[in-house]
């Protein structure tokens, strides 16, 4: 039985998947010690080269929309005592699974959230500058009781006790599961040495889709009280995030571009809230 199972949902990112799988081929942890489940959240493109799938990689289908529905399909075929979640657009460092494997031995009943390091764009844009400075602050997420599925290890017993991800969610399912697990005696801790990298997004379209997907999870999912709170908070300018950008140890020009991007996306969020309240479908990409 492998020590770890790795679940990777894929939707509209088949061009990025080979880099992820290549990085998994070159892990310092022995290949026999982990099993990988790639879950296609859409029909597999005809041009996808299946030769990139190593012997310890399994390809499954999930045509129910949403990465959490896909992750649940992955969970259903995992054989290890701990399940590691990541995304097709991430690339793990060579010792990623080795670090997680050793941490699991020391803390078998804890959720482990690893570091997500942003890779600067080859050609900087307003949006890549924003994405680099904002990043995916996993350490801050952990202080708030959850971790992002881009780099998250969950004991199988915690999933068995808490249930799988909420398949209806298109965003925020990782936070919901982590917080529920904590109430059942499975707390989360930050694992700085387990690193995956993520390229900074470079276009407005990419950043707007992400902002809309996150807002969809806030407005459409969870208890009514929390949803109303998100709607209310979203109407106010993002002062706290603005202050983080202002304090960032980068040039004044980068800080100014990041703040500009932040407020453009704040307006995108307001428009998306109105659209969702009018009955439109949430963004899934």
Question: How would you explain this protein's 3D organization?
Answer:
GO terms for molecular function: glycosyltransferase activity. Belongs to the glycosyltransferase 2 family. The chain has 285 residues and is of the alpha/beta class. It folds into two domains: 4-123 and 134-199, Spore Coat Polysaccharide Biosynthesis Protein SpsA, Chain A (Alpha-Beta Complex), CATH 3.90.550.10; 204-277. It has helices spanning 17-25, 67-77, 96-106, 126-134, 138-143, 156-162, 173-183, 204-220, 224-233, 239-247, 252-277; strands at 4-10, 34-40, 57-61, 82-86, 90-92, 111-119, 151-155, 188-199. It has an eight-stranded mixed beta sheet, with helices on both faces. Helix 1 links the parallel strand 1 and strand 2. It is globular. The model has no long low-confidence stretch (mean pLDDT 94).
* Overall pLDDT level: 94
CATH architecture of the largest domain: Alpha-Beta Complex
Order of helices and strands: EHEEHEEHEHHEHHEHHHH
Structural class: alpha/beta
Query: How widely separated are the two ends?
Result: 34 Å
The radius of gyration computed from the alpha-carbon positions, rounded to a whole number of angstroms, is 19 Å
Give short descriptive properties of this protein.
single chain, 285 residues, alpha/beta, Spore Coat Polysaccharide Biosynthesis Protein SpsA, Chain A, eight-stranded mixed β-sheet
